[in-house]
Amino acid sequence: MGTDTTKIVIDFIARELPQSAWPHWTDGWAHEAEAAILDAAFSARAAYGTPTTGVRAVITRWRHHRQSDAPLDNLSTLAAFAERGDELAVILGNRQRVPGNYSTKAEAAALGAASLVAVGCTGSADIGNTDAHRAAIMSVPGFGARTFDMLLFLSGTLTPDSVELLTRFATEAAGSAEPLGGVEATSLLAAVAAELDVPATTLTHAAWRYQRTAEQPRRPAKSDPVPAM
Predict the structure, then answer these.
(1) Is residue 147 within 8 Å of 41, Cβ to Cβ?
(2) pLDDT band at 100 (very low <50, low <70, confident <90, very high)
(3) What CATH code is assigned to 33-154?
(4) Are 206 and 17 in contact (CB under 8 A)?
(5) Structural domain boundaries of the chain?
(6) Residues 192-218: pLDDT tens digits?
(7) Residues 186, 40, 212, 130: is their CA dihedral positive or negative?
(8) Using CA atoms, how far apart are residues 6 and 181, in angstroms rounded to an integer?
(9) What confidence tens digit (pLDDT) does each residue in 154-203 have?
């Protein structure tokens, strides 16, 4: 694709997910499974916040608690709080609850970590797009398929579904009447990242989050009429 298309996508980004306002211009949490599962838990139905608020503040507090310069990639450390959810919520400074109000997000993250450890996952390198790992996450009340998809993506795994999501983003951003192919979309996003002077992983994260949010069914507002039964 040419420079004109690259410019069209850059203009789309400036309009729809500007770097100054869209909070997801980060690299995600590749090689940091603890951070990835915390993000997947705490970003559900919540404002993502800034580097010092919201989800990233939760991860910063956990990093401080761990008192280690090493990557947050030992799921056993979170799993140790599976029966101490209230204590973990205090450490993380956040008592938000999962969809369905089953538990705090802190407790759910710890339970998810424990479930992954039980099927042999110790860190990000072990997490894969497998039925066992999906079932482990979805066994936690309040976690679902979207939680697992988020965990995979944040851990650095691009599944075919994620590639298709990014391809749909590139197609929309380019204003293309025909769907782009996966290779074409990847090349386009790489060119855009270079023009924006950001790592390709950062643009991929921002674009994936944008498209995922855009395609999420809208929840009825409190003022919306209740359908007749």
Answers:
(1) yes
(2) confident
(3) 1.10.340
(4) yes
(5) 3-25+159-214, 33-154
(6) 999 999 999 999 999 999 999 898 765
(7) positive
(8) 16
(9) 988 888 889 999 999 999 999 999 999 989 999 999 999 999 999 999 99
